[in-house]
Design brief:
By secondary structure, the protein is an alpha/beta fold. The chain is built from 10 helices and 9 strands. Helix 6 links the parallel strand 8 and strand 9. It is globular and about 55 Å long. The chain starts with a strand and ends in a 19-residue tail after the last helix. About 45% of the residues are buried.
């Protein structure tokens, strides 16, 4: 499980388990946590323009890759961009080029449209469609140029995915859709569509949210963890990984970083069913932003 990778529709392989860096800032903290992560076996690092840590990640990797006898091609880097209001293709390209410069790399393994809406625009405004289409067209061109080996989306609903697929007339298809995904909130119809179209589904907020322990302390999760001799976090991460849904746990301690990748165990079918039912019960809860209203 720790080393498992999934082949994307571009032919490149993405590690099933990645290291999330949301809300992790500061050069020394980034360095220390990436040091722990690489030592523990993570080979996929997930960031975004709005995380404001790309430059520190790039600097840290320059030192850390040689430390672990790794080359650039041994790791997988994901970044993301949010469509911007009143900005054209040149602006989008500049942001991607800035990501490349910050990360000190000639290519990014996966570049995502972070959100189907536009920064500074009402979610109900019809121009959301225009701007995300513009952003996608630039990413598709940069994919063809080799600067983004794979491209995809994040927070796209079934409707957004179908719209994008209908517009992909140049043959460049989304390789990944990264969405909130955990036992209290998941969308079987979205997973079905993505798999039918060859799009890898990747989870964020697998543990709920860093500001709340509600999901990890849910009685069902806690009971299964106790019986299997695992932590609640491991149960939640393994639940997704066992379905071949990618996971991106973040942590701010070496112990947690090591714990989150130690997923070489199986959740029995009956316990998996109990976790699956949380979405339909009183335990149903969404923790992150809701893309449903975005036109």
């Amino acid at each position: 499980m720790m080393n498992k990778a999934i082949k994307l529709n571009t032919g490149f392989s993405i590690p099933l388990i990645g290291f999330g860096t949301y809300q992790i800032r500061g050069s020394q903290l980034i360095y220390d946590l990436l040091d722990y992560a690489l030592k523990a076996g993570y080979r996929h690092i997930d960031t975004a323009v709005c995380y404001r840590n790309e430059a520190d990640i790039g600097t840290a990797l320059k030192t850390l890759l040689p430390k672990y006898n790794l080359k650039r091609e041994d790791i997988f880097i994901t970044s993301k961009i949010i469509p911007q209001l009143n900005q054209g293709e040149h602006f989008v390209e500049e942001l991607v080029l800035k990501s490349l410069a910050n990360l000190q790399t000639e290519y990014i393994d996966l570049y995502l449209i972070h959100w189907p809406g536009v920064s500074g625009l009402q979610v109900s405004h019809p121009d959301n469609v225009k701007y995300r289409r513009c952003t996608w067209n630039v990413l598709a061109r940069m994919h063809r140029e080799g600067k983004c080996r794979s491209i995809g989306v994040s927070n796209y609903t079934v409707r957004h995915i179908r719209e994008l697929l209908a517009e992909c007339k140049d043959g460049v298809l989304p390789a990944v859709n990264q969405v909130e995904w955990h036992p209290q909130h998941y969308q079987p119809e979205l997973l079905e569509l993505c798999r039918a179209e060859g799009i890898f589904l990747q989870a964020y907020s697998s543990l709920g949210t860093s500001g709340s322990t509600q999901l990890r302390e849910h009685p069902t999760v806690a009971d299964i963890a106790s019986r299997l001799g695992r932590s609640p976090a491991q149960i939640l991460l393994r639940w997704a990984a066992q379905q071949d849904v990618g996971i991106l746990p973040k942590a701010s301690s070496q112990a947690r970083i090591e714990e989150n990748i130690a997923l070489d165990f199986e959740i029995p079918k009956e316990d998996t069913s109990l976790l699956d039912e949380l979405r339909k019960s009183s335990g149903a809860k969404k923790y992150a932003w809701d893309p449903t209203p975005v036109v």
